[in-house]
Amino acid sequence: MNITLHGVAIGGGIAIGRAHLISRSMDDVAHYGLEEKDIPAEMARFDEAVRATRKELEMLWGSIPENAPAELGAFLSLHIMLLGDVTISREPREIIEKQHCNAEWALKLQCDLLVEQFDAIEEDYLRERKNDVLQVVERIFKNLDGHTPQLPAPGDLLDDTILVAHDLSPADMVYFKDSSFAAFVTDVGGATSHTAILGRSLDLPSVIALHHARELIREEEQIIVDGQQGVLIINPDELVLSEYRRRQRAWRDAKRKLSSIRKSDAKTKDGTVIELLANIELPQDVEVVKGSGAAGVGLFRSEFLFLGRDTLPTEDEQFEAYRKVAEDMKGLPVTIRTMDLGADKNPKWLNHDVADNPALGLTGIRLCLAEPLMFRAQLRALLRASHYGKVKILFPMLNSLGELKQSIAQLDYAKQELHAEGLPFDEKVEVGAMIEIPSAALVVGSFIKYVDFLSIGTNDLIQYTLAIDRNDDSVSHLYDPVHPAVLKLILHTIRTGIKGGVPVSVCGEMAGDPRLTRLLLGMGLRKFSMHPASLLSVKRMVLNTHLDDIAPIAGRMLRSEDPDKIADLLQLLNAEPDA
Ligand code: PEP
Ligand code: MG
């Protein structure tokens, strides 16, 4: 019997394959039975994880800086005390013994019980200590290796495997990047979450925000993933299968046809040259970029080098990675964004507690400015790589001119160090500012004399302008790239750049959406950076557009504040004969 679920389409066409279920979060812990003879080893594994957790906490406690707030020491002491309590360090062992289950499951059962007890406490302060218990348990989980081993080894995946997960973090996506499988689907996630962005960059059919897929699908079950319509079909019957096989062939044919424009210059009908660049996450993505016909890398999200590993990459490791991309792109521009960590991208080595509101916390440039040694190591690596190709440096998440000036000061400091050490770098390396917070868009005029280029991060700009968490699918219906407030901020940034003689690009997901290509062209944008899989669809729009034809409709859209009118005009803008 066909069961159909609807979610958010991430793209990549249609896949028909077999489900492979992934467990990951604490809500989604693997549960398996053990034989009597394996119980002592499982209890020892649990004890070892508790010991490792204690060591970690004690190390953290021992390295508290003198000027740190007193609460920090108090919290760490509390965590050490909680870890020593029998309810956390002994009772899960008893569950393993009695229920013959794995350590992760025992810990989860015990954690659920504790949470229930805390929830019943009336006194606010004590009730809130529940979060401390959860944090301690989460640390034990990590030390149990309760997360990573539940992900299949990349080599175990088959070409028709469809990964089904409650959620996949950016670090998980990095883990899967080099393996071959057919598609992935998740229960949660917003349209511009980093999971979605990486899904697009894998160029695989994917659907997110399916809510109950992980519960409804069984291992090895046949499923269809329609990444164009955002549909998932479980156990399709023959009729449905043959219809989807037909659609899959049509999608593949269309993709083949599109490849005929790969070598054509990206010019509008009136001869205006448009620069189409690619977004990448890891150095190995350059191969796909070269195959896409992109004019360079417009956004290298360097923070992905920092995820999915236990230690911070050294300056030399980073230098090798940046140099490889710069050399592989053979003189084409490579814009490398300094690490944009925090929010949903938290590497294991960064011992920062997850904030209540992580997207408004210590992320992007704020984190870099708070950790100057870490930041400078990256800046030195970037500068050193600039000697081997056309590297440009881009600062993310700026909210004021002050932050931009501080970032440039750090860059100047790194330059002086390299000079003193006699290490070569491009003295004219270009520096850019990302405009992705409304405050930055509003004061962009003050940035102009300090930068060589601007890049608009529409994913975050939309998130912060419309106050919608980009990772939360319950508000993904409010994600609206053509909201008049968003359009005003983008237009102001483009016009300010043009007036100040500073090139502007868009590197958020809007740049890769062909339905928005004409609108952005009509706003004066001449530089687009997107995941390589969208490049040819956007190029086809560029080739089919005459700027004079679209200007009046785009102008009307930009003057309107009525969403219905804007939607109608967008349709008109994209209508034939040109498209
Ligand atoms: C953006 O915010 O639009 C952007 C390009 O950066 P990221 O998606 O990595 O936050
Ligand atoms: Mg961003």
Question: What can you see in these coordinates?
Answer:
With 579 residues, this protein is an alpha/beta fold. The chain contains 24 helices and 16 strands. The protein has helices at residues 39-62, 70-84, 86-89, 91-99, 103-119, 124-128, 130-143, 170-176, 194-202, 213-216, 238-258, 286-292, 315-328, 364-370, 372-386, 401-421, 438-442, 444-447, 458-466, 484-500, 517-522, 535-543, 547-559, 563-573; strands at 3-6, 8-11, 14-22, 161-165, 183-186, 206-208, 222-226, 231-234, 275-280, 297-301, 333-337, 390-395, 430-435, 453-456, 504-506, 527-530. Helix 2 (70-84) packs across helix 7, helix 13 runs parallel beside helix 15 (372-386) and helix 15 (372-386) packs across helix 16 (401-421). The chain is globular. 44% of the residues are buried. Phosphoenolpyruvate binds next to strand 10 and helix 19.
Features:
579 residues; alpha/beta; binds magnesium ion; 16 strands; eight-stranded mixed beta sheet; binds phosphoenolpyruvate
Task: Determine Rg (CA atoms, Å).
Answer: 25 Å
- The parts where pLDDT drops under 50 for at least 5 residues are none
SS field, number of helical segments: 24
Mean pLDDT: 89
Biggest β-sheet description: 8 strands, mixed
- The dominant shape is globular
Helix content: 40-55%
Terminal CA distance reads: 39 Å
Arrangement of strands in the largest sheet: 1-8-7-3-4-5-6-2
Question: How much β-strand is present in the residues?
Answer: 5-15%
Query: From the helix content, strand content and strand pairing, which structural class follows?
Result: alpha/beta
How would you name the oligomeric state of the polypeptide chains in this document?
A: single chain
Bound molecules: phosphoenolpyruvate, magnesium ion
Total beta strand runs: 16
